[in-house]
Amino acid sequence: MTENHSITPSKEYLESLAKGLQALSLYSRDTPVLTIQDAATRLGITRASARRILLTLTELGYLKQDHRDFLPTPKTLDLGFSYFASLDLPDLVRPVLSQVAAEVGETCSIGVLDGSDIVFLCREEADKPLRLDLKIGSRLPAYAHSMGQALLSQLDSQALDQYLARTSLKPLTPRTITTAGALKRQLKAVRTQGFSVSIDELVEGFAGVAVPLSIPRSASPTAISVSLVHGRRSREDMVAQILPVLRDAEQQIRSRLMNSGGR
To answer: Is 197 helix (H, G, I), strand (E, B) or coil?
Structure first.
């Protein structure tokens, strides 16, 4: 028998909490700061209510105030890290990511889709002098990254249309995909072949290979990727070297999660 967890707004729905969480979700790469008027307009509430919400989040340490502007603090990452820690993922996957990084000599990461961005949840670096300056919690635009395309390929048509409606496909390099039609065609290919490859789309000289990853209890699409400075390596060379290792890692992670009771 399935338990019904539906919420009746008139009795159980806490409007102030909902608006507070919605206020935090307004922040993005394109919206790094909010004013009281911004929050009121975008949340559909009065300025007085927006002011109380932003000042409460500031008092709790999730925002900081700079005159009229309210900016997110690193404490906002605690919300995501609490979820991440609840899955026991770091301890489970770190040995696998380390093995991949050592085998291919490049950075291996796991990330999720959050809004318009990918968020890195776990990363292991190869032992080499040139490293990518990204840390756990870093965000990058999903449409221009191999991991992002592996994540977006897991969305249904409605969710993908919503993503495209809220995301500006900016030309980051001459090879960045900048139209909805082109991105949809790319994602269709990713779904068909089961992996994604991105070359020079985010930053010229950088590339990545990624595969979708099934994580129990994760409400967001998840993927595992290898990122690298590609130099003279062709797409075929990178796929031949990296894809089998990633697919093996995906199987190892799935096995570890099953053996841990799906946590």
So the answer is: strand
